[in-house]
């Protein structure tokens, strides 16, 4: 199997990943103590305010509850070891009441109140309340088993892409999420909480990335056989870069790109006669059953996280997708000869705006 | 009344008494063993079957841990993995946890409250067979590689016919509904048995705490299971017929399924926890050598828990996107559960504190329970905090939390209970050494598996993925979890070997080996089918501590109901509050009907699965036939209690009174039915108000006139039933049969009118959810009108046979209750389905 997740090279965590392989034990201990960055999906390595609040809430709760836990267990064990004293019935009632009211009522009431006082403000900050300046809106639509991402507010017209989500850093973004089939869940662990993607409904979640960077996301609600292979590549970039990225993906630019290279006219014909029933490429087709492919060459991974994008990867996917991602909804196209698949793959790789 | 102790009888009389009791209560051998209805035998069957399913569920768990032990594994295909995870959850919840605890309650409750059997023994048997057949059908789907694969929660649309086209979801929906018959029947009869058959003098506040816990569990089953049954019926109708209850395009809403599922699913967690806590509350005082501290506090905590647990279901749905206010409410309510839990934990602590605790094997499991359950409870409070929940929901953190609560809160107490009551099951003592090894392996294995899994979840690993990539820091933790899982399995293997060996090599137990306080230890070890030769009066919560001679006295027949020459199986019917004896309850003996009825229902289940609807129809008719035949052998029927002779001074037989246990069973069953009906109304109003694409026609398709006339016919029938009962109370049975036939006729009229409304409404049930849900309501009413008519008709016939009349007035009272329920429900239905849409409009 090829080395997967090439795009991790760009991840700030790469050194730690390498280190982990060198000495897992030391790292295990270190992580248990420090619990710093532990991969691209750790909620304890926050990269945005919402996730940072939750991580803090977690550490406070862990500390407090560890004390409660040890206290309760220690009391029980002590009750076993304790020397037995004879008490009068009245004394017994008094002791009993002290334990039950103190431990059974006051302790939980105190803990729960403290938790709510601490937790409610954290929750409130995550709500998509109205802002003085309306935030960028990105629509994300879940499919079995890929992501459709739309930018309705892009200057010059809506931009559509799949399995990658580019967002502006340093500003709040409202994600309007829904589903085209079963229930999925949208979750970028390092930025904040998750929200379900339901057919027929739109849920809104507001997230903000502090700084430019790459954050993983993965479907969080069991959505069928290939739930495990429904990754979303998320990258936060500066405002200008974001605008430029959108501008590159305007319909006419993409349509030009699709027909730019005469060398691939055969591949385009194959696409239009076969693939276009499900996939769209701007200027050639408008089908929406499978992912839009207009900028596929510029995406960092294929098949919802099954393969990293590199030369020949698309051809490899076309030949083996039912083994790489069994039961995915794309019919096998093994009946095509290698040359056809090769040119199809090569053409799709050129779709890099 | 036989409250006065009988004189000690001579050894010959005593022998005759034992022979008579064995004759009446004895279990047949060979093929006829299938007719046994006795609670001891059936309780054991429930528990052994539950253990078998535990092994199946455990093997599935090991398959899961093997697959995700390391990244990029190809041990199982993704399809099989989805089936395995779905079945692991399903088997453990529905085929292991609930039935085995029901089995324990079925076995233990009559013995603890000083009765000889549960109050509806044939219902126990029906429940067992439904459980066994349903469990086999469901498990068989794995052999066919057609097991359900959309998760044990069956979220639609994933489980719908579009996204799960095979038979998997059908296996789940039909199999689970079949199994739930057993839960509901156990729920109903445990409630009635606890309330009405406690031995003389066992007032509610003198009842063992275990009985309180089981009472709460049973009531929660009665109220909590119907929403899921309704949900399963709706989803199966959607899959089989295309009625779009959950389909957005047809005006349905998939979130309705989640509400119905968790309306059941959350109480279910407490249905599992409460009996286990009952075991804890039974064992701790025995090994602390003193009564429980804060009995009243614990009863209060149980009650509060029972109520709160029905207000928490939305905390499973915090990420669905429901309104903030609702989230805040459910978040706070979820945290409040910490209070009743805390009260119990600290009442147990105070009991140990003030007692002289001894560390025996059952206590070891109790300590294990405490450590694991407290940890699970604390992570539960964390999860109730909405912002934190949004992060860790559907990750391995939740998997870890849930196993801490369920294994800690159910399995560890269950093991404690099994070891504690082992002498009762086998007459032998468990070994301390192998048992301790087993405990430590399970305890260590469990924590290694699941403590680390919290961390895997915090690192972002989602649930239910069949594979994952290396590079997220999950690898080593998953491997550790898997190793822990196998250590835990080894521990359970050791426990099972220990228990198996003890049946042969265990030291024979003496009477009351742990020096316990409750009546089950007054049994012979192992117990006889009739439990007690005589039923004692009880003055305290701790009969065996305060009267150590009681077991001997009971075996010598010195207390109540020490006769069986009349050939009836008898127990006391006592006042629900005070425990004063009111009547003698005679319960039916061994019968084929429960098995036959369950077999007919199994045919229905399988033919629905295979879409052989004509066969299913025939099966339903046959099943109803069996059930009615079964109900025929009651009251003054020759096979029940043809003559009403009792010992001088004893109270009358319940079938000769107006307030027997059947009435209580009917009431409890109608609570379950009412819960089903309320769930239906919830569904109707939910779709109406929340569903995004709901379409309400401008004019209601239901004929209001016809419905009102049907309602009046129903009222007339009910009035006739009431007047029959009033006259029976005055010992008058002239014209009784005519009244009953009249009620049946009016019920028939109601039936015809509803049928006409259905016909006339031209409902497009596969087009819109509005028409589909309307049709379900009409079918509900239709079924009830038919049932009312048929049972009144049968009552009329029974008057002719002299099974019912002024001498045996009981049955019409029960039937009249059903009619009352029918009236209330039908008029609410008219208001909700036909009047309200006309008033408010779409």
Automatic annotation (TrEMBL), chain A:
Its main location: membrane. The chain crosses the membrane at residues 25-44, 56-78, 99-120. Residues 133-248 form the Cytochrome oxidase subunit II copper A binding domain. It is found in: Membrane. GO terms for biological process: ATP synthesis coupled electron transport. Residues 262-352 form the Cytochrome c domain. Its EC number is 7.1.1.9. GO terms for cellular component: membrane. SUPFAM superfamilies: Cupredoxins (SSF49503), Cytochrome c (SSF46626). It catalyses: 4 Fe(II)-[cytochrome c] + O2 + 8 H(+)(in) = 4 Fe(III)-[cytochrome c] + 2 H2O + 4 H(+)(out). It is a multi-pass membrane protein. One of its GO terms (molecular function) is cytochrome-c oxidase activity. InterPro entries: CcO_II, CcO_II-like_C, Copper_CuA, Cupredoxin, CuRO_CcO_Caa3_II, Cyt_c-like_dom, Cyt_c-like_dom_sf, Cyt_c_oxidase_su2. It comes from the Bacteria. It is an enzyme of class 7 (translocase). Keywords: Copper, Electron transport, Heme, Iron, Membrane, Metal-binding, Oxidoreductase, Respiratory chain, Translocase, Transmembrane, Transmembrane helix, Transport. Subunits I and II form the functional core of the enzyme complex. Electrons originating in cytochrome c are transferred via heme a and Cu(A) to the binuclear center formed by heme a3 and Cu(B). PANTHER family: CYTOCHROME C OXIDASE SUBUNIT 2, CYTOCHROME C OXIDASE, SUBUNIT II. Belongs to the cytochrome c oxidase subunit 2 family. This is cytochrome-c oxidase. The gene is coxB.
TrEMBL record, chain B:
The chain crosses the membrane at residues 42-64, 84-107, 128-147, 171-197, 209-235, 269-288, 295-316, 328-352, 364-390, 402-422, 434-456, 476-501, 615-632, 663-687, 699-720, 740-759, 779-797, 818-840. Keywords: Cell membrane, Copper, Electron transport, Heme, Iron, Membrane, Metal-binding, Oxidoreductase, Respiratory chain, Translocase, Transmembrane, Transmembrane helix, Transport. SUPFAM superfamilies: Cytochrome c oxidase subunit I-like, Cytochrome c oxidase subunit III-like. One of its GO terms (cellular component) is plasma membrane. Belongs to the heme-copper respiratory oxidase family. It holds the Pfam family COX1. GO terms for molecular function: cytochrome-c oxidase activity; heme binding; metal ion binding; oxidoreductase activity. The keyword Transmembrane applies. Pathway: Energy metabolism; oxidative phosphorylation. It is found in: Cell membrane. It catalyses: 4 Fe(II)-[cytochrome c] + O2 + 8 H(+)(in) = 4 Fe(III)-[cytochrome c] + 2 H2O + 4 H(+)(out). This is cytochrome-c oxidase. Its main location: membrane.
